[in-house]
Fold these 2 entries.
Entry 1:
Amino acid sequence: MNTNTTAYSELERRFARMSHLGDAMALIGWDTQTMMPEGAAPARARMMASLRTQLHEMLTDPPVKGLLGAAEGESLDEWRHANLREMRRDWVHASALPASLVEAHSRACSACEQEWRQARPAADFARVRAPLAEVLRLTREIAKIKGQALGCAPYDALLDQYEPDSRAQRIDALFADLGAFLPGFLAEVTRRQPAAKSGPLGPFPIQSQRALGLAMMEVLGFDFHFGRLDESRHPFSSGAPDDARITTRYDEADFMRSLMGVLHETGHALYELGLPKDWRGQPVGRARGMGVHESQSLIMEMQACRAKGFLGFLAPRAAQAFARDGEAGWDAETLFAVSMRVQPSFIRTDADEVTYPAHVILRYRLEKALIGGELEVAGLPEAWNRGMRELLGIVPPDDRRGCLQDIHWYDGGFGYFPCYTLGAMTAAQLFQAARRAHPALESEIAAGKFATLVEWLRAHVHGRASSVSADTIVREATGGPLDAEKFKTHLRHRYLS
Amino acid sequence: MNTNTTAYSELERRFARMSHLGDAMALIGWDTQTMMPEGAAPARARMMASLRTQLHEMLTDPPVKGLLGAAEGESLDEWRHANLREMRRDWVHASALPASLVEAHSRACSACEQEWRQARPAADFARVRAPLAEVLRLTREIAKIKGQALGCAPYDALLDQYEPDSRAQRIDALFADLGAFLPGFLAEVTRRQPAAKSGPLGPFPIQSQRALGLAMMEVLGFDFHFGRLDESRHPFSSGAPDDARITTRYDEADFMRSLMGVLHETGHALYELGLPKDWRGQPVGRARGMGVHESQSLIMEMQACRAKGFLGFLAPRAAQAFARDGEAGWDAETLFAVSMRVQPSFIRTDADEVTYPAHVILRYRLEKALIGGELEVAGLPEAWNRGMRELLGIVPPDDRRGCLQDIHWYDGGFGYFPCYTLGAMTAAQLFQAARRAHPALESEIAAGKFATLVEWLRAHVHGRASSVSADTIVREATGGPLDAEKFKTHLRHRYLS
């Protein structure tokens, strides 16, 4: 141990230990959603709560504060310095709040979430009004305290939990640009798109869907020596070092839905597997936040795989997987037409690529207003419906298809929504930069060759982990800051050309 | 909190936290053997080592010693008192040794185990002689120190890790009795048994074997709301509260091997699922040790399921599972004849019910002599072969089929072997007591009804957890101490009647 970095080294030791516990929790979380027998759920919840408390106590162990201060006086190279910055971020988020507030918030969230599970199917917003108001009250308090600790505005402190160092001011500008563009663009796309076309009809046996998914994961560069594909009710990507686990849900009537979901999660997994091995177990070695993470899934799904080039590669292989060779409809044009259908709809998770950002912008505006105190819970349904009319031109017939649809707020998740669309914008901008660097990129992808794209992402995104901000990653990878124009270019090219 | 049990309550809180971490480690251990992608193995090993260190630090945290002392002055009811005794046992085993010795032992074991993996297939005992001598040297030191801390002989301190409170003196007497009986009994059985008979011939498709295994698990009373059956290279039983996980390995040529293994592991799982819910997460709520655990698997496999009664229930269901209804050989007599074949052999894990205890008695005698200093590593092969001749009348042609066959010693596992045969003896004695209490027991089992047996075990074994010693469990369940005569009666009845 270098005696000049004693405090820093001790922090590395402690964070490595915490990281191992965090990895264990991630694997058990995977198990909960894929393998756990139903009856184990209550015992499992208690176990996870206990592990979370343990991790929190390790992070807020009294010596940590002094070690962070002492390490700041030590001579550290760039990555160690960044690591120390990320350690402090973790510590501030964990230690800023009094334990009583954390506990009250956690109780309020689980009470509210339980009510929401009843309220949503019944479209009964009145039922969640009081518990959501309580969650909001506590979240505002948390945002204020964390904002003071981090030196930023309250809502920015919530963003920082998911998208470190991002600020509402920057998102405001990006979303204002995109929000102004979308309604007109949407009108033009829906006006010009041909009548709905149906793709190949099922049933598509699950075993064949799985085999096709595995094969396409390998095409993208996923190495099954270091990961798995399983099933779960809600698809996700998780795992531990050298152990990337993604899941999907199969629909016998629609193979594209599961397949595109698998390719999306494969993008997340390739990011995790591409993080630098030397910094495993340290905060600086983690993925850079949810926006960048989402960009890695969307660059695979939306930029690479939903393009006509890849669909031309996919079509005959899919036909073969389902033993439907020679039938009509197994061609790039049909798959593209089906996959690119644009239609304003009420539910975010069913939305297409064009309308999805409108859903996110709406939620972003509303949650910022809720945290800022310009909007109260009682006014949420009306504000929601007004926003839907403005951005998508439709008004949900009830709150089930309106402000009750997403779990996020009811479970205390404020500050997460913008990541989805920041990810989509980042994906478009990164893909355009990769194409500039490698003019043959799209023809390679159309031939099922992803190595160039993955290597470019490793060099410019994965390998940087959390050593710099998301903004720096984007600037240095693409030559400029995140810019809505790039995403608009992508949409125009895909839907109007 | 009762102010009279402040220290005790604090210990309960701490042990609950440790238990949750232990459960997490058990689930991840399950994952390692069933789900983990191969490439994750090195990272997984580091994660597990880190979690083990964390758990060890929690157990040996300085305040624990004082809390144990203070709690002994508090007024505790019977179970809390027993819980405190088990907490102290955990603590003594964890804290008796200096960290340097634990580490040296751990390093010596993994070095020796690695050599053993090369030495076994090559039948090259010379290769492991030095590393095993080092493991033995350190194990003797550990045994001596733990013996002083526990107030028992060194070898007893090793036994105590697996079979709490058991003593070599008692095992000596039991094994002397059985060891004197076995050679003559074996000669008589092999002389009288008919010529080898072959059972139904495969292949038996794995899917059908799995379906039959699941069905028979349900017959025994396994509730899949609280558990799973999976595949692994080495079958085992593991899990967490309300979450029993057993595994098997399928052989397409032999369905009985996997099926009987599944029923064996189901016995382990029913024990875990039957532990008292009120004492979950506390040391007193755990299973009572490896001997009792083995008795619960063997009571299902050997006492209940390999009996002609159950085989008569199984035979037509197995025939149906493999779509072989109406073919010859699918009857209790044939399955029994195949399953009861006795034949001295070199490898313990392939041994039948009659010769298995001879393997265990040999290992017990040798490991006791090794720890006691009457035998050194250099003399092991010769002592092994002499014992095989004496107990089984055969001498292995090489050390691969002799003293190199089991991983236990090479990985530092001294004191475990006797549990296998203590379990077999306990199973026989418990079964005979259950039959006395319920004269219809065997006819119920022959009709596929296990509720009476399982309820009896819940009341007399499972529900007692670690509140009393294994000896007390046996005495109170059967009316007397563990007695080799009961096992001999079982063997005589099954093999000579």
Note: Strands of chain B lie at 227-231, 237-240, 243-248.
Entry 2:
Amino acid sequence: MDTDILIIGGGPSGIITALTARHCYPDKVVTLVRREKFVVIPCAIPYIFGTLRDVEKDRIPDDVLRKAGINLVIDEVKDVDLESKRAQLVGGDEVSFDKLVLAVGSKPALPPIEGINLRNVFHVVKDPEHLVKMKKELDKAEKVVIVGGGFIGVEFADDLSRAGKKVTIVEMLPHVLSLSFDTEFGLMAEEELKRLGVELRTGVKVRRLLGEDFVNEVELESGEVIDADVVILATGAKPNTDLAERMGLQVSRYGIEVDEYMRTSHPDVFAVGDCAAKTDFFTRKKKFAMLASVATAEARIAGWNLYGIKALRKMRGTLGIFATKVGDLYLGVAGLTESIARVEGFDYVVGESTVPDKHPGTMPGTHKIRTKLLFTRVGGFFLGGQIAGGPTVGEIINLVGFAIESGYSAAEYVNLQIGTHPYLTPPPTTPATLTAAQDALTKIYGRK
Amino acid sequence: MDTDILIIGGGPSGIITALTARHCYPDKVVTLVRREKFVVIPCAIPYIFGTLRDVEKDRIPDDVLRKAGINLVIDEVKDVDLESKRAQLVGGDEVSFDKLVLAVGSKPALPPIEGINLRNVFHVVKDPEHLVKMKKELDKAEKVVIVGGGFIGVEFADDLSRAGKKVTIVEMLPHVLSLSFDTEFGLMAEEELKRLGVELRTGVKVRRLLGEDFVNEVELESGEVIDADVVILATGAKPNTDLAERMGLQVSRYGIEVDEYMRTSHPDVFAVGDCAAKTDFFTRKKKFAMLASVATAEARIAGWNLYGIKALRKMRGTLGIFATKVGDLYLGVAGLTESIARVEGFDYVVGESTVPDKHPGTMPGTHKIRTKLLFTRVGGFFLGGQIAGGPTVGEIINLVGFAIESGYSAAEYVNLQIGTHPYLTPPPTTPATLTAAQDALTKIYGRK
């Protein structure tokens, strides 16, 4: 079998690379090889168990590929020979290609805990069959222990408590969401988790999982033992670099090395999504950012640059913009948090605001929006933002992302025109992000 | 009485000019004179009758002024002598000032219709006493006729139908919202109004209002007669230029003439908000844009520029970003619509997308988001956007506003990083505005 462009992996970054390549190079043959019979939307996996209640409902339809004229092959790539530009599939076929894109995702990063192989201990992967099995056991379970209080763990806790489960989160760091948000935002999430009836054990590690065949207890290093019908390991993931290593591409523990055009160390091989290493927008250090939104941003870039670099289309550094939800609290983050800015030696000023998300604040369903923005002290340029509020937080944080990526200063930003509506936004007098930027300006220029 | 900065008018633009001036010039004395005992949030006036159910709930608290150390005077300015820089108040006081800001708002633009002075015929003004009286009559009314299907008329219809009233909108143009949105969006609003039980009479004028003392019928030019307990005239407003004319400032029918720093024809007098003329961002023609969000953007600029122009802080032209709501349909607009672009001779390309506002689309409460963006054919620069969808439309349209004001091209825009979440945003594979921008790109570059 012959193709011009071969994409390995059928998740969001594989799909978007394929679609972008079709837009940009309509005369090229595009083939996507993936293992899974159907693809789940990764971001919504935590919501399968209480909200969607069916793995099938979290499906990305294959129609989008078929309609675009992309060849879809359900198989696994065993090996790739870069010399002859041929991929061997497990099913026995061989595919020759001109350009190759690795979109092979991540693998769970499992902690070295005794008892991890007991039945009803689940890690979180994008494999529908695994998720169907997990759902079956979770449906029967009463008591669920989640190991890991990052955003995946917190989202599972939110959704499982909605489904009536008794949930405990065990997080070894002092607060949940510590790797993504500053402490005050983590504390808000903890308050909301408690309100939902979720038990929190923070600042403590799991010693071991206990049980005969099935898990039934989680023992903490504090000595506490927690009953568990199911244990979910939300302990993160690591880039899948297996194939890339076998191909002889440059990799590190952060993933397959790529340049700003998503090219690997081989000029005709690109890598996108969780398997590709990320460079932080500000620190320029390698980092992890396993988000479908980051993956698709990379895919749009790779898809355009396959045949001839379009200089404009490059990854200027990963911001890691995302939002999450705990009960009725919505959180968003983009760029640097204060804790990271401090550790990394940035000279920053914080601008803050608390405003209603509708106006007047007496409108039904009004949430408070708390905004914290970071700016460089000199020049007042955007470094990052965190927002807690209602369901509009997911789009407001995108404004912050745009401001960062566009190189806005606080002084220019407060000059921008904003649209408002009583049901939909804060008042025109106090837009959330403009008001926080004004607070920073006032601090920078030393005026009260 | 002496002040450094005198602001006339207590609405959003007056308040924000005062607060910005305090931030920027903490050593100056700021005095705000207004007529009203308390100030209502203008944007929420339509929601007083079905949602808030109390004029008091739509109040802007005076605390924000008092806490900032701004002198608040409840009185009316009779005249201003620019020679001696003194304002005479109706109550007899005199205020001498150094800088003057006119934030005197608008007056209803009443159509020349017979019967307009009958009782229970209400125009829409920001005067709390008028609104209390209007609310009293609307509470008793069963049948309400709204003259004018612009966004104020449509919002009144939405909220009054929620309150159980039998509502009819009479609009002389072929569709509601015609001045703000293209026809396909007006049609969506009409569908939703019908679903709410609102009667529509479009493409027809009101001939006269009938009744003895109280209005009881509305006669259309088609001959149709509609029963009415209350008639609301949502026929727009015109800038209040009375005082400015008496002061000898340059004015036109679009309002008090101002430069990009919000200075009038007198160097020490600024004008902001509905009373100030607007220049369109793209056409550079004068236009009306009586929105609190526009007014506050101008106020932030005026407040900073009172003593010495800060070149960065200028109005680059009014985009007129805003959102509105009809039942469960939310609409946003920024910049040029297609109908205006065509009339004004722009060479444009349309990019469109329809995506869910959550992901997967099977999430509960998912709305479809329909996005229409306009770009220049050459270069692909943003000209405008219209969005119909769910409650996140109010913030998504701000992304479009930012893109326009920042001079983004579609090619640069689709490169931007976006954050997503199942409950809060479209999928990472198809962000609403990026997907529409990609559609335009595909058209511009002639690829399928």
Note: Chain A has a mean pLDDT of 96.
